[in-house]
Amino acid sequence: MPQLIFGLTSLLILARFIWPLDWPLPAKIVAALLVLVALQFHRWNRLSSGSEFSPEFPRPVVVLFNWAFGAIMLLALLQLALDAGLLVAALVHGGIVGAPDGVRYALAALAATAAAIGVHQAMRIPPLKDVEVGIRGLPRQFDGYTILQLTDLHISRLFPAPWARAVVARANKLGVDLIAITGDLIDGTVDARRKDIEPLRDLVAADGVYVISGNHEYIFGYDGWMAHYAALGLRSLENRHVVLERGDGRLVIAGITDRASRRRGHPVRDLAAVLDGAPKGAPVILLDHQPSDARNAARLGVALQLSGHTHGGLILGIDRLAARANAGFVSGRYDVDGMTLYVNNGTALWPGFALRLGRPSELTRITLRAAGDA
């Protein structure tokens, strides 16, 4: 399907943008070749690493490819809008209506500028976002309890060790009670990312740093990565729960494997089994990389689910496509049958389409409040 989309995009740009320009044929051929090279970004990724999800080029090259790829995809959308306008004009005026080269140049400039802004927004150290969540039955000892959610770090050539170190420094300054990392920490093998992920060893929180898998851990060797996370001091919450106690107050933090486990021969997700043995009446906070199964979590009595995976849909407006693929959940807070679901836009995002417009990255500090106080 992606190759079909990229193929149709190529045809659209070649036939409706490049060919109508008043350029000599050699210039059109060069422009067409550049478009084709940029749109094969993921093919070049596979050649560099064996996986389209892990571009192993120098960082400036990865940045350039993301900008070019994003600019062309945005230009295709703008060209479709232009063609729709020309079609309406033709119907109104009863004849063929064309657009001067200047209009196409303006569209190209707009797409290139928007892509540059989008890549910059994607690569930055994310700002803090504060979210308060009211929870029924929250013990008074946990009123004001803070959880920092990190998710979709996608540590890679695009998000290397210096970026990870800056995120860790900003996270540690917050002094939260617990850090929850909800999957997709990496893109690449353990050997390729060992140095880049090392800064996560320095994450500190009073009640610990917990991690679950995302779908990308399964792409790059689930067992190896989960063992490496443990070596970094990140506590796995895969298919289990822990009980936090403050005096006679209890709070359950649970985690579950990603939906990708179903396809890759790993233990089947069973949230009921994960919650078995949890103290009755204690609120449950669930870490689940993908938000799609939120209604099942609500049915089983979870009070708050923290998810990621969607990257917020990347671009405002187009984000509705991501929502359709994730049971309608794409960004921010949702009330799901009485349970609060929070879908984080992501600390970073996949380096194969690193572009954000209107859906910013975030370091998310969740503050728990007894229901009625939020």
From TrEMBL:
- GO cellular-component terms in the record? membrane
**GO MF annotation: an example:** UDP-2,3-diacylglucosamine hydrolase activity
Q: Which Pfam families match?
A: Metallophos (PF00149)
Q: Where is the Calcineurin-like phosphoesterase domain?
A: 146-312
Name the source's superkingdom. Bacteria
Identify the Gene3D superfamilies for this entry: 3.60.21.10
Q: Which biological processes are named by the entry's GO terms?
A: lipid A biosynthetic process
Question: Is the keyword Disulfide bond assigned to this protein?
Answer: no
**Ranges that cross the membrane:** 25-41, 61-82
Q: Which UniProt keywords apply?
A: Hydrolase, Membrane, Metal-binding, Transmembrane, Transmembrane helix
Q: Does the keyword Endoplasmic reticulum apply?
A: no
The protein's name: Metallophosphoesterase
From which source organism is this entry?
Bradyrhizobium septentrionale
Taxonomy, top ranks, is: Bacteria, Pseudomonadati, Pseudomonadota, Alphaproteobacteria, Hyphomicrobiales
